[in-house]
């Protein structure tokens, strides 16, 4: 009887361990969920209304962060597509330094690939027009963290342009998001010599709850719809492997 009891106990223990393993695969480790999240934005144009969606998946592991972006914009008139842009982008950061960038953008059927990699004391950007150098402190026109609201040059990932910029000090303000007033820090980013600027609002958790792109064609507003935790394994699956 004792042998039978021990066998039953061992079987029960094995079953519990198996269930725990399955739960770990399905749910992922608890603390890791805090390191990866998805931000979903609605895209609104000042002339054409709601035109699409924008998503950032931010996966931070220690000092390293991978940001995977998807963009889908459509502007139609009387049922006819007048403008369509889709994009998939990956940024890799080591602390506050950009070490890798890949962007694939399709605008009205015309694809553009942009690649970038850290190289010594600069960042090398490659576009269909050729290669150019940017400083190691270059930023990307994708406001996923307030700690990157500094630097003197910015990359627009859709075409790989590298432009001088000026960022204003943060201003405490209130911004409307989803019909509610949210306390936020506002940054104004002016692109030197360009008729273009950005405004970004971060809440007290450091999340960009809203940002604008303003140019001669009007204002494009990105408003946060949701922020949800993501299993880091899922986040990593959406980003191609690369060695900067």
In short:
The chain is mainly beta and 244 residues long. It contains two helices and 16 strands.
Describe this structure in words.
With 244 residues, the protein is mainly beta. The protein has a single domain, classed as outer membrane lipoprotein receptor (LolB), chain A (Clam). Helices cover 13% and strands 59% of the residues. The protein is built from two helices and 16 strands. The protein has a 16-stranded mixed beta sheet that branches. It is globular. Mean pLDDT is 86; it is low at 1-34.
Tell me the layout of helices and strands.
Blueprint: H1 2-27, E1 36-45, E2 49-61, E3 64-77, E4 80-94, E5 97-107, E6 110-119, E7 122-127, E8 130-135, E9 139-140, E10 153-156, E11 161-167, E12 171-177, E13 180-191, E14 196-202, E15 208-215, E16 218-229, H2 232-237
Parallel strand pairs: 9-10
Antiparallel strand pairs: 1-2, 1-16, 2-3, 3-4, 4-5, 5-6, 6-7, 7-8, 10-11, 11-13, 12-13, 13-14, 14-15, 15-16
Q: What are the key terms here?
A:
13% helix; mainly beta; 244 residues
SS field, number of helical segments? 2
Give the name of the CATH architecture: Clam
| Average pLDDT level | 86
Question: Biggest β-sheet, characterized?
Answer: 16 strands, mixed
Rg is 22 Å
| % residues in beta strands | over 45%
Overall number of strands: 16
Outline: globular
Percent helix, as a range, is 10-25%
CATH topology term: outer membrane lipoprotein receptor (LolB), chain A
SSE run: HEEEEEEEEEEEEEEEEH
The unreliable regions are 1-34
Distance between the termini: 63 Å
Top-tier CATH class:
Mainly Beta
Structural class: mainly beta
How many structural units, i.e. domains?
Answer: 1
